[in-house]
Amino acid sequence: MAMTTPSADAETTLFEGRPAAIPGIGALLLAIVTLGLAALYFLIRSQGVLYKVTTKRVLVERGILSKRLEQVDVYRIKDFVVERPFGQRIMGTGNILLLTMDPTTQEVKLKDLKTDVVGLYERLRAAAESERVRRGVRILDNE
């Protein structure tokens, strides 16, 4: 019986999940003041978004009844921005903004991630660099 080992080209999931229903202190206070009605709204809104970040691509699926799927290959990401406002840091959430070379999707915002966003950024940055090297892609600054 032959054993197969994963190749270097294998796609590995770095993060998969939905945004936090209550991403920051402001949303928490609003939920308390409205006696939970805002929390219900935030929960439904968060269920309408699914993020999947792998070593090869970033997928964002939006919608509850109608769905829209956006995909960006990680080798097309040219810049990363990690946002962790005070209210989100307290709640353990954060955002990652991806600036890409993709003509149809020049900006992808992964909002309200309930994970270590700095760690995810580091893993995604390393995966993007690895994919660029593997494909022989270089990013040139024209400025």
Task: Describe the secondary structure blueprint for this structure.
Blueprint: E1 13-17, H1 25-33, H2 37-47, E2 49-54, E3 57-62, E4 68-73, E5 77-83, H3 86-91, E6 94-100, E7 107-113, H4 117-135
Antiparallel strand pairs: 1-2, 2-3, 3-4, 5-6, 6-7
Helix pairs in contact: 1-2
Please give a structural write-up.
With 143 residues, the protein is of the alpha+beta class. The chain is elongated and about 55 Å long.
Summarize this entry quickly:
With 143 residues, the chain is α+β, with helices and mostly antiparallel strands. It is built from four helices and seven strands; from the N terminus they run βααββββαββα.
What are the main properties of this structure?
single chain, 143 residues, alpha+beta, PH-domain like, 4-stranded antiparallel β-sheet, 3-stranded antiparallel β-sheet, 4 helices, 7 strands, elongated, disordered N terminus
Mean pLDDT: 92
| Largest sheet, strands/sense/barrel | 4 strands, antiparallel
At the third CATH level, what is the topology name? PH-domain like
- Biggest sheet, spatial arrangement of strands: 1-2-3-4
Q: Uncertain spans, ≥5 residues at pLDDT below 50?
A: 1-5
Count of helical stretches: 4
Q: State the name of the first-level CATH class.
A: Mainly Beta
Q: What would the principal axes of the Cα set say about the shape?
A: elongated
Head-to-tail CA distance between termini: 56 Å
